[in-house]
Amino acid sequence: MNNKILILNFSLREVSSSHKIAQYLQDLAGSKAKVCDFKDLNLPRWDEDYWKAGGKWEELLKGFRSLMDEADGYVYILPEYNGAASSLYSEFNLFVNKESNHKPVLLVGVSNGRGGAYPISQAKAFGNKNNKVNIIPEHLIVRNCEEMFNHTTKPEWVNDNDYIMSRTKFALDVLDIYTTASLEIRKSISFEPKFANGL
Ligand SMILES: Cc1cc2nc3c(=O)[nH]c(=O)nc-3n(C[C@H](O)[C@H](O)[C@H](O)COP(=O)(O)O)c2cc1C
């Protein structure tokens, strides 16, 4: 890929299939891609000090904001927990603001069964009001995730694995095209504090 991509993993689990998928995407995307396991940022729960200039959140969010800022596009890896995205994804949305404006996002739903669509719907419906990310129409759903993207694949999973691997390559290529186009788009849209939040 030509662009700087940040791959965000929203799994709550220590041993996470989403982390494995994030690493696979990073290998495919090349040296400009970074992975961030959001849980490892160990951010406290949001509180109202967030609104205070110079308050504790400026320090707490410094590393996270520079990761978001320096990337030109994102991948969100969203495991399905009880038919929704994880609570970390909701926390994340409280912390993201103008650094992500008009940058494209590739969504990846993850399930160890046949699910994975609900976090995609959630992000498409509720994932970009104030942060103004541009969620691209191409998305991925990695079903039976424990059997996908492994070093060795059981014979019964070879077809599904081949499909999701080629679809992943296609989706990353699409994200790269959107990311390149958004560099131009972002030059033409100036930040308007009055209209910082979406309606
Ligand atoms: C609390 C919890 C709830 C889950 N609920 C669902 C679900 O509603 N639908 C589904 O397809 N999988 C569900 N799963 C299975 C996950 O999709 C599976 O564990 C997957 O590996 C999670 O990704 P992770 O390993 O990156 O955390 C659930 C798992 C957990 C831990």
Structural class: alpha/beta
Q: What is bound: which ligands? A: flavin mononucleotide
Count of distinct strands: 6
Low-confidence segments, given as residue ranges, are none
Globular, elongated, flat, extended or rod-shaped: what is the shape?
A: globular
Radius of gyration: 17 Å
Can you give the helix content as a percent range? Answer: 25-40%
End-to-end C-alpha gap:
34 Å
The succession of helices and strands, N to C, reads EHEHHEHEHEEH
The proportion of strand residues reads 5-15%
Average pLDDT metric: 97
**Largest β-sheet summary:** 6 strands, parallel
Number of helix segments?
Answer: 6
Please supply descriptive tags for the structure shown above.
199 residues; alpha/beta; six-stranded parallel beta sheet; 39% helix; globular; 6 strands; 6 helices; binds flavin mononucleotide
Task: Give a verbal description of the structure.
- This protein has 199 residues and is an alpha/beta fold.
- It contains 6 helices and 6 strands.
- The chain has helices at 17-29, 56-60, 62-70, 87-95, 117-126, 158-188; strands spanning 5-9, 33-37, 73-79, 104-110, 134-135, 140-142.
- The mean pLDDT is 97.
Question: What does this entry show, briefly?
Answer:
The protein is an alpha/beta fold and 199 residues long.
How is the topology of this model organized?
Layout: E1 5-9, H1 17-29, E2 33-37, H2 56-60, H3 62-70, E3 73-79, H4 87-95, E4 104-110, H5 117-126, E5 134-135, E6 140-142, H6 158-188
Parallel strand pairs: 1-2, 1-3, 3-4, 4-5, 4-6
Residues 11, 13, 16-18, 79-83, 110-113, 115-116, 145 line the site of flavin mononucleotide.
